[in-house]
Amino acid sequence: MSLSAALKSGDVTLLPGKRDEDWKWTDLRGLLRVLPATAPALDLAGLAEGPFDALADQRHVVAGGHENVAIDVPAGSERAVALRVLSRDGGALAGKVTINVGPGAKLRLLESYEGDASAYVTDTAIIFVLEAGAAVERVVLAADGAEGVNVSQAQVTLSPGSEYSQTVITNGARRQRIETQVTHPGAEAKLRLDGLYLLEDKRHADLTTVVLHQGVDGATDQFTRGVVRDQARGIFQGRIVVEEGADRTEARMRHNALILSDKAEIDAKPELLIFADDVQCAHGNTIGALDEEALFYMRQRGLPEAEARALLIEAFVGAVADRIGFEPVRDIARAWAADRLRA
Amino acid sequence: MAAVKQTIEHVESLEKYQHGFVTDIAQDFAPKGLNADIVRFISAKKDEPEWMLAWRLDAFERWLAMDEPEWAKVHFPRIDYQDSYYYAAPSQKKGPASLDEVDPEILAVYEKLGIPLKEQAVLAGVEGAPRYAVDAVFDSVSVVTTFKKELAQVGVIFCSMSEAIREHPELVKKYLGSVVPVSDNYYACLNAAVFSDGSFVYVPPGVRCPMELSTYFRINAENSGQFERTLIIADKGSYVSYLEGCTAPMRDENQLHAAVVELVVMDDAEIKYSTVQNWYPGDPVTGKGGIYNFVTKRADCRGDRSKVSWTQVETGSAITWKYPSCILRGEGSVGEFYSIAITNGRQQADTGTKMIHLGANTRSRVISKGISAGKSSNTYRGLVSAHPKAKGARNFTQCDSLLIGKTCAAHTVPYIEARNGSCVFEHEATTTKLSEDQLFYAMQRGLSQEEAVQLLVNGFVKDVLQELPMEFAVEAQKLVAISLEGSVG
């Protein structure tokens, strides 16, 4: 059951749907009765610059005719790579990206999903392998079109002493799922998985993570925030599995969401599956409206209500962007979020 | 400290499952297996009216078309539903008019269980002491109901389900299956077809039930599944507290228990439903022989400002599959769920609650404490949802898991669905082992390791124990200790 299998075979019955537990809130089978034709090859010459191109020393594009990308960061080296996934003209795109980060190497991956206004269907599989002591900071900016369907699934394999940090920022699509699965060996490897969704109209975004702790001394820190308005729907599914023997694991998961309309919806499933005893695991989940008392306080100080609301939301959202390590990217993320909120 | 000491003494006195004895009483069995004729047999045995039989047969038809659910985190060999008895009634000469007429062997069983059937006499001289009405279910048929008269004076109906079907068909027809529909789930549907007996409570408008009502269940006949059906209706402005406690004898073959409990709460009414469950958990090493406890419990807060509070202490059963739920339909209705689930040995528990907010300003609170030890698995699975009309819905959920030992598992699987802009949902969960520092501190003060663990565990579950009626709380605390026996060191 996966979108990539359905795209490969053209068989819509292979699409995941409501009856699949992990896809119950992101029903693709009910949505897609037919799959579009494969996207035609895209001419990369004369392509407008992507949001992160200026910050990167290597640029890659996944688009029609350019389905496969391989990124290799040799041992001890450092790279800043911009990866763009371009969805156009109502076509179907099945992209595959493999990323190897050698021992002690550092990769800054700046990923953007850019969709037009058509009803495209895009599936991207990204395979990360981090060797011992490697470090990856991945920032995903998902700017899909309102009619697009976009599924991105990353498989991350960590090695001892490696470090992986991720921030996903999205404003959703018709159906969108950004999924990250991490195999965590423990052994002082560090993992940070953050997410931010800002949804309006009828947009839908699903941030799903699965972390598998397989060895002792692992740490995971997850922080996701979201704001939904209109008839939008935000989904957070986080699963942390601590396997037998993976002692001294420390895992934290937080999801906070603001729901600003009576027709909007937020669904959350923060799961902890623990098979070891010497662990510290916790998750917190809150869903609610803006704090009326804080609003009152600000209005009392002379701020107009609209501005007070905007400030509160901006502060709420800013907490995720603040955790991005690389400052220029942090600024881009903040500006992008501010644009979405003001719209 | 007294409670701890008592607990320790209890554990020491305990070499094996205390309630693991089998009483030999003449049994009246339906033949093994399940088909429409067995359903008819059960209905005929119980002298039921035609409409009840039709209801059962309809449920049986639907059950045949259903599949057994497989989503829970529990594993067990497939149940052969044809290899079980669906009706077993202790044979009696006549219907008992008083306690004296009850089979003395049955009374002896109750005595071993420590059920206060004769509490009337004990409490006679004590003014203002809490009183309990016991509707004892011995296998499948309610044997005796005490305190009926006093309850009748205030208009409270408290009787067995079979009696209610005969005496109060209008109430049963109106409410039975209205909270848990016949085809709600596989086990509830099976229950609807073959349910044996259970309790029926109706509290009329404005009445505060003068005593706590209680039912003790006990599975006795070998190989006989027990299918209770409980229905409690609290009419406008009424209040009732209902206690349910369970023990079962030791045996080798797995026993299926698929009960259905329906609560209906009208305007300004309140039901407090407490359960202590310590059915035979199976052999601690092989897991063989324990009870399968597949229960559907649901409360429908139909009235405005109605309230339901579920409190459960689940320490027994090989497998527990149970999600006491609240449908918060009435404006300003309140649902509460307090749970302690303890698994040891090879036990598996998948339990939690559903809080479905439909009405405006509904509130719910979920406190769940799971403890796993041995090779057991303990899952909290819960749903909190607010529908678009549930303006101002409020939920607080706290589920904490405690792990004792290297081979146990604790899972937390909450589902949260918010569909309007004015609800506030908060959820927090933690999973940890017993704190080494606290253990060290307690042992440094002279407690043995076992005592120290019990002290810390008691502290861990305190929030839930507080919600239990006094008598149950003491029993529950003992149970917590017994359940964790031998899990440390």
From TrEMBL, chain B:
Residues 148-208 form the SUF system FeS cluster assembly SufBD N-terminal domain. Belongs to the iron-sulfur cluster assembly SufBD family. It holds the Pfam family SufBD_N. Residues 217-460 form the SUF system FeS cluster assembly SufBD core domain. This is Fe-S cluster assembly protein SufB. It comes from Phenylobacterium ferrooxidans. NCBIfam families: PRK11814.1, sufB.
